[in-house]
Specification:
- This protein is an alpha/beta fold and 271 residues long.
- The chain is built from nine helices and nine strands.
- It has a seven-stranded mixed beta sheet, sandwiched between helices. It has a two-stranded antiparallel ribbon with strand order 6-7.
- Helix 2 runs antiparallel to helix 6 and helix 7 packs across helix 8.
- 39% of the residues are buried.
Length: 271
């Protein structure tokens, strides 16, 4: 039985993440009193398209990439070499792409990939920046073997994937990671986080049908070893596992479990 997605819709929104607010005021030119009504209007349109928890709970406007310890290294890689390329896998509203642009990355270095093309259209409404930023965007399903993936293959030095891998079970994650590996150059870094577990294993998924695999630090090492074997690549894996507010918000869901938390990672392609 599927979960009631309305449980993920935060109705009493009186404030948003302060870093996101600063971005919307300074970059997008919104007046302070406009920010929350503007975000809610866009949120409701997006939630009607795809009722993911991160949208309903207003996490879609948070700047994930800049919050990671690896961000300074990633930004330096991009800014120091005009030929370097960044791919945001599951970019949603492209908020992390905007942050890179503000911090000095060139638009031609920035590429977004997401399942829902309308999110990219809505992102320009959210940030009101159609006249100053245009970046390459691809609407694809990572599991689609019939799609043309050639525009993305062997191109990227830095990749970002937050709240993505936990969508699938183990086999689905391996297939998605094989695809993502094909986008990388040797030496590329993958930075992100995922819903994880202190013990690792299969748990009921967000859609209420089937399972997803929650990675632990130990299973994530095993995971990238398998991906490496399937793609003839090798990966160095660094992880941090911790509990976060976004997991506690969801403890009333039937897919929640006591040891779940957030797995942060930096994965480097060494061969």
């Amino acid at each position: 039985m599927a979960n009631d997605s309305s449980q993920w819709l935060q109705k009493d929104v009186k404030e948003i993440d302060p870093i996101s607010r600063q971005l919307l005021e300074s970059y997008s030119g919104l007046a302070p009193e406009e920010v929350i009504p503007h975000c809610l209007a866009i949120r409701d349109k997006a939630f009607a398209l795809y009722p993911w928890p991160c949208i309903g709970q207003m996490r879609f406007i948070r700047l994930s990439l800049a919050s990671y310890p690896s961000y300074a290294n990633a930004l330096e890689r991009i800014r120091s070499n005009p030929d370097s390329r960044f791919l945001d896998v599951g970019c949603c509203f492209g908020q992390d792409i905007r942050k890179l642009f503000i911090d000095g990355a060139k638009p031609e270095q920035l590429v977004g990939l997401d399942l829902v093309p309308e999110f990219n259209t809505l992102s320009y409404d959210l940030f009101r920046d159609a006249s100053k930023l245009s970046f390459e965007f691809h609407a694809r399903n990572l599991h689609d073997d019939d799609a043309d993936w050639s525009p993305l293959e062997n191109r990227f030095d830095v990749l970002h994937l937050t709240s993505l891998l936990h969508i699938w079970n183990w086999e689905g994650q391996v297939k998605a990671a094989q695809r993502i590996a094909s986008f990388t150059k040797p030496g590329a870094i993958l930075i992100g986080s995922s819903l994880g577990s202190g013990v690792g294993g299969e748990f009921p998924n967000l859609e209420g049908d089937g399972t997803n695999f929650r990675q632990s630090e130990k299973t994530f090492e095993k995971f990238w070893k398998e991906v490496g074997e399937k793609t003839s690549t090798k990966w160095d894996v660094k992880t941090i596992f911790k509990a976060m507010d976004s997991t506690r918000m969801n403890m009333n869901q039937n897919w929640a479990e006591p040891t779940m938390g957030i797995l942060l990672f930096e994965v480097t392609r060494v061969e």
